[in-house]
Structure formats: C-alpha cells, structure tokens
C-alpha cells in the first residue's frame, strides 16, 4: 500500500507503523503547525461495525486519560469516508518511567499486564471507563 501524500488537510511525512487495527502515519497539522500521528482503519476492516465501535472506544478511552505515558488524542475526523484518529506523535516513554518508580533507572518497562493492573485498580484516572473492554492496553498502542 502506497503512503498517501495527504489525509484531509494533513500532509503525510511517513508511516510510523501498522497493526491489526490500522495504520499510523506521521503528519503535520497545518492549522497548529505541529506534528501529529494519524491512525486510520483499513478499508477491509472499516466495513465491520464491531471494528469501528472498537476504534471509537479507543478514542474515547484516550480522551478520558491524562497521563504522561499514554498518548493524547486531539480528535477524530471523517475524511473521504475514512475515520481518522488524530493523536500526539510521541510514543509514551514507557509506563513507569517516573524516577519515583525506579523503572527508568533500571531501563525496565512495565508490561501490559502490570499496566492493566494499574488501570483496573484505579492507578490511572479513567473516570469510570474500563480499559479492559478496549481489548488492548499496552504502552505502544
């Protein structure tokens, strides 16, 4: 699949990655003159209502969380029939990267199960959302 030159008003710089639920591109937000990451669901998956519901749940979950180790979401847009999630471009530093935790000094990163334990126990401010229903809860996602 060729990398698009534009997604809506966002010039695409390069592909950041791809996974089971989408492709993420590094782009520039021309209105705010900042880099953003844009996630799109491939056409093959977008036709499935369950996949699109999961995409929407992910966006709402990210919007409800304010944590330095979880990427921020700036918005969700429809562009030419494609659903885009506009996110911060920086990957999380790794859960537990605070000095008080000790993980940063040792070079360790918390695994998804430990992050899920923190989320499920109220360790992160989710305001009533259940991250386990999202399906994935890992630092790179």
Compute the gyration radius: what is it?
A: 16 Å
Task: Name the poorly predicted regions.
Answer: 92-118, 124-134
Strand fraction equals 25-35%
The CATH topology is given as Phosphorylase Kinase, domain 1
CATH architecture tag = 2-Layer Sandwich
- CATH level 1 name: Alpha Beta
Largest sheet, order of strands side by side? 1-2-3-4-6-5
Secondary structure category: alpha+beta
- Our measurement of the CA-to-CA distance between the termini, rounded to an integer number of angstroms, reads 21 Å
Tally of DSSP helical segments: 4
Topology as H/E string?
Answer: EEEEHHEEHH
Overall pLDDT score: 74
Number of strands: 6
Sheet with most strands: 6 strands, antiparallel
Q: Share of helix among residues?
A: 10-25%
The CATH homologous superfamily is called Phosphorylase Kinase, domain 1
Could you outline the blueprint of secondary structure elements for this entry?
Elements: E1 6-7, E2 10-19, E3 22-29, E4 34-40, H1 43-46, H2 49-64, E5 73-79, E6 82-87, H3 103-106, H4 112-120
Antiparallel strand pairs: 1-2, 2-3, 3-4, 4-6, 5-6
What does this structure look like?
- The structure is a single chain.
- The chain is of the alpha+beta class and 141 residues long.
- It has a single domain, classed as Phosphorylase Kinase, domain 1 (2-Layer Sandwich).
- Strands 1-2-3-4-6-5 form a six-stranded antiparallel beta sheet.
- Strand 2 and strand 3 form a beta hairpin.
- The longest helix is centred in the middle third of the chain and has 16 residues.
- The radius of gyration is 16 Å and the shape is globular.
- The two termini are 21 Å apart.
